[in-house]
Amino acid sequence: MGKDLAISMTATTSNEATASTVNLGPAAGLASKESGARIPLAPEFVSPDDFSPLEVVYDFGNVRREDIEAGPRSIWRYKQLLPVPPNVADYPNTEPGCTRLIKADRLAAELGVRKLWIKDDTGNPTHSFKDRVVAVALAAAREFGFKVLACPSTGNLANATAAAAARAGWESVVLIPSSLERAKVLTTAVYDGALIAVDGNYDDVNRLATELAAEHEDWAFVNVNVRPYYSEGSKTLGFEVAEQLGWRLPEQIVVPIASGSQLTKVDKGFQEFGQLGLVEPTPYRVFGAQATGCSPVSAAFRSGHDVVQPVKPDTIARSLAIGAPADGPYVLDTVRRTGGAIEDVTDAEVVEGIRLLARTEGVFAETAGGVTMACAKKLLETGKLDPDAETVLLITGDGLKTLDAVADQVGPRATVPPSAAAVHEALERGRG
Ligand SMILES: *Cc1c(COP(=O)(O)O)cnc(C)c1O
Questions:
Q1: What is the pLDDT of residues 305-319, one digit of tens each?
Q2: What is the dihedral angle through the alpha carbons of 257, 264, 210, 31, rounded to the nearest 10 degrees?
Q3: Which of 217, 261, 337, 360 fits 231 for a cystine, CB–CB 3.0-4.6 Å?
Q4: Is CATH 3.40.50.1100 correct for 100-127+231-405?
Q5: Does residue 396's CB lie within 6 angstroms of at least one atom of ligand 1?
Q6: What is the distance between the alpha carbons of residues 403 and 253, in angstroms, rounded to a whole number?
Q7: How many angstroms separate the CA atoms of 117 and 107, rounded?
Q8: How do the domains of the chain map onto residue ranges?
Q9: Quick check: CB of 393 below 6 Å from ligand 1?
Q10: How much is the average pLDDT of 177-186?
Q11: How many Å lie between the centroid of ligand 1 and the Cα of residue 316?
Q12: Edge-to-edge strands of the sheet including 27-32?
């Protein structure tokens, strides 16, 4: 995100809709995250004032619980709190959200925690939380007059972008590192958009996307030029958790960190619900989870720094493998302000985390979920998570996408001839 680029983006943005005609519901403008300097709603992501990231600011009306409860069973029940037009649900879209919040009593017992919940976002249309952010980005992009949806991705975003574009009848351009898991390549390619594998890691792909976004002013890169809108989609995770708990906030929440956007927006969702009187603004602590092989935010937290030093990722948790996380500093702010902490875990612990969650709760998470699970365990063991406080773990992606992570460790107990005696014998041996 260089300064030159920011200037050229400003100069070349000329989509069909102009600031005066776009209707993004309660969204009133964009503001620099640092100086607060405002600009009108536009497909921009860098403040012309100070080159820091832009964020959506709102004029909320009177938002009532009853209106939300009467809304659709998707993230659009929160449309009064998102940068989307009032008729957003009338367009064909993937209708993400309203995933399960399950009370995880067996896992809680194993960990020695009193009240534990799993927010199971594997239940989204393309099996990760990315459907939420892409749906909001597409709704805003449509309002700005875009017709091509694009992204650089570590996998889940590729799935979500290609599927959302297919459903909307848009073209898609999806850039992935060529080393991506086979399952994530196939589950993107099947939607038949333009999928391009790039020889390089995610940070290379991301840089390439920023370059292309400046060249192709008719492409909406969900996490680049329309990133301010995209990232607001993560608030719906916070909204749903609070609504599903019976209109109240949890005391602790553990969130995985890739770019860091999700973590900061779950916090923003909790804050907005409090400010609007939808919940009591009770205190809560936000905890972050990373894989040790890509843990720049965890490292900065541990050493007390405000600056996040980029790293070269090396972990099986590829969906979290962003070595230069755009929202890293804001994650540090959120975690420190709420009194939380950030932890990181090895790949072996990630696999153990996946298996622990599957064994105790019947939820099969991808490696990112293993990161959240294993970090929660470590945060408990080190006394940072309070075992007596109500805790929510965000499980953001499905294990079917990262089968290789557990492939060496699980399988049939035995292969037997089709005879009852042989089955009994195998079960006996298993017990022994
Ligand atoms: C993208 C992703 C995240 C975190 O995303 P942020 O970039 O931090 O917002 C978490 N879990 C999964 C499975 C993801 O795909």
A1: 999 999 999 999 999
A2: -170
A3: 261
A4: yes
A5: yes
A6: 26
A7: 9
A8: 100-127+231-405
A9: no
A10: 88
A11: 14
A12: 38-39, 27-32, 54-58
